[in-house]
Amino acid sequence: MTESVRIDPTEPTWFGQPRGLTVLFLTQMWEIFSYYGMRTLLVYYMTKHLLLGQQHASLVFGTYVAMAYFTPILGGVVADRWLGKRKAVILGGCIMAAGHGMMAFEAWLYIALGTIALGNGLFTPSLPSQIGDLYKKDDPRSGRAFNIYYVGINLGGLLAPLVCGTLGELYGWHYGFAAAGIGMLLGLVIYVWGGRYLPASEPVVRIDPVKRASLRDYKPTLLLLLAVGLAVTVFRAAYEQLGNTVALWIDSGVDRAAGGMVIPMTWFQSLNPFFVFLLTPFLLAVWRARSRNGREPASMRKMSIGALVIALAYLMLAGLTSLAGAADVHWLWLVLFFGLFTLGELYILPTGLGLFARLAPPGHAATTVAAWFLAIFSGSLAAGATGTLWSSLSHASFFLCLAGLASIAALLLFLLEPLAARIEAQRAGSSATP
């Protein structure tokens, strides 16, 4: 049964891709702007304004990020079975905008965070799972669509610390939170306006017992995705420190003086998406060239390399903080760290999302993409718990622990490569083969 109407790639395009891809990544861009705008401020807001202790703030931060990625598991099921992707995106965006509005009230902090996480559950799996609907099965452009999409949405991540961070740090935390809410509303406007460029028909999938039983045929695929999710859980425990303990270290352990001014601590969070823009075209060109020679790394190899590069980035911080002792580390080293960190991210995160979307059983696209966020949920909980060690370990020891976690993830992903290669080859040969 055809699950969605696919857009003919010969139709007019933007930037050589279906116009719907631009609509989707602009929508996601503003959602990312709102999410990272609020997230950039959150740990500083809790420790500097609400005067919460570091360990408590880290746990709240980790729990919020975890819940923001747990709710998509349920939201994907709701979208696939009842609402459909379009309605799920619009409803989820409205709920998130309401949650950002609640951030204006200090006493509503936990309610606001819960509301944003709830809306994210409907929004997050339903938007990227529409990318596959824009291409025919044999469209050669579809293979790297998620990397292009990843670059597009990181524009929001680049702008968020500069806009929301500056407003919050220099003029008042609630101004920054308000800007994040406005960003979410802009994303909704773009999505509704651009609906004409998205698949015109999207019947909600009603899974009968026969269809449900057919999922047993996909057992090897589902077991692979589960194993990948466990490895990514370990990886996220280290990765998610970027907005948690690394942000605290930027405030207290980095010499931010430059040209007679002190660089706002929130601005450094823009380096990650900046390097996404800078490095992605280079990586795509390298992979495209290697693909022509039949030497492009397989998905698991790319993800394993990415986790290992993240480990190297944290090893660099461990060495720098150990050598610096009681002194601050110069901010230029932080720029180098973000560059290395982002290189690893580009190897693992878009590849993992694309893997889950590509191997999704028919009729379960949003649910399978949501399963990718289950790994982010569990990893974020682990990151919150790991962050509580920040106050009890030296900075060098803490960063060394993060390097160890990323290295373990790299090893697990490397061991999964043979199984993943076999399953991807089977699925490429026949869409009905699990």
TrEMBL record:
A Pfam family it matches: PTR2
Localization per Swiss-Prot or TrEMBL: Cell membrane; Membrane
UniProt entry keywords in alphabetical sequence: Cell membrane, Membrane, Peptide transport, Protein transport, Transmembrane, Transmembrane helix, Transport
UniProt keyword Transmembrane, yes or no: yes
Domain Major facilitator superfamily (MFS) profile: 20-421
GO biological-process terms attached to the record: oligopeptide transport
CDD domains tied to this protein: MFS_DtpA_like
KW Cell membrane (keyword) present: yes
GO MF term list: peptide transmembrane transporter activity
Membrane topology, from the record: Multi-pass membrane protein
Transmembrane feature ranges: 20-38, 59-79, 148-168, 174-193, 221-239, 267-287, 307-325, 331-357, 369-390, 396-416
GO CC terms of this entry: plasma membrane
Family recorded in the similarity comment: Belongs to the major facilitator superfamily. Proton-dependent oligopeptide transporter (POT/PTR) (TC 2.A.17) family.
NCBIfam families: yjdL_sub1_fam (TIGR00924)
Protein name: Proton-dependent oligopeptide transporter, POT family
Source organism per UniProt: Pseudoxanthomonas indica
